[in-house]
Amino acid sequence: MILRYLLLFQLFVCQSYSQQNKYHFVIQNKFNERLPYASLFWEKSTGFSANAMGVLSVITETPIDSIFVSSIGYKTLHTAIRQIQIRNDSIIVILSPQESTLPSITVHSTKNVSDLGIQEGQTSFLSNHYRNLIGAVKVTQPSKTCKIESVSVFIYKKSTEKIPFRIRIFAVDKNGYPGEDLLRESVVIDSYNIGQWNTFYLNERNIYIDHINFFIGIEWLNQPNTNGALQIGLTDKIKEAYSFYRFANREWRQFKSANESKPENLMIKTRILY
Fold this sequence. Notes:
This protein is mainly beta and 274 residues long. 6% of the residues lie in helices and 43% in strands. The N and C termini lie far apart (80 Å). It is globular and about 55 Å long. The protein has one helix spanning 2-18, and strands at 21-29, 39-42, 46-49, 55-60, 66-70, 77-80, 85-87, 90-95, 113-117, 124-127, 133-140, 146-155, 165-172, 178-181, 187-189, 196-201, 208-209, 213-220, 231-235, 243-247, 253-254, 265-266, 268-273. Residues 2-18 have low confidence and may be disordered. The chain is built from 1 helix and 23 strands. The longest helix has 17 residues, at 2-18.
């Protein structure tokens, strides 16, 4: 009887193992330069970010037929797995540079300072247990052109430290949702303090915005072996809905409280010079 159970257990383990599909992706540009923290997802809401070396290893119960791969400053690639080069058991994903369509901005002296975004007290939080999540807050600047001095994010006290995220800045599309990237470089944050506001200074990057309305936000950089969660503060103390989120390849949506009675807003703010 014991031998029978052992044989059944071994058969179960073998079947489970055989059902696993292993993929090892290496994401780079045409110059063989790795793209740190590039995002790779399949279906509509499943995926992860590569590590600091542009490498992502995943194990799935079902085969992956096609993938979407994106990185700041590069064109998003949608392709079938069978069409990608395989080298030493690694799937080599090559992204092409994105041609800049941003208009030229006349740099001028900046004398005024303004703080924009969500600054109310925390009532809840949003966790990075959601895969391929981007959250953004809509702001309105008082001038035609501004320079981003800093972006601040409130990180919940129970958040895990050193889980990376990327700062994002978007234009507003025709439907009022986040659209084109206005920040064309990858600004990844992996060091911060929990239970408080964290300010990240961007003055030296010379980020100028010539849109009256734009979005500031972050992208959760989830990886398969991530332990813990990056939890960003939410507040329901503002009547207007300024915050939006998007899972992987899904559409943008507005944040709402659990009972959908009032909006919730991500606690992200920016200081601008104008």
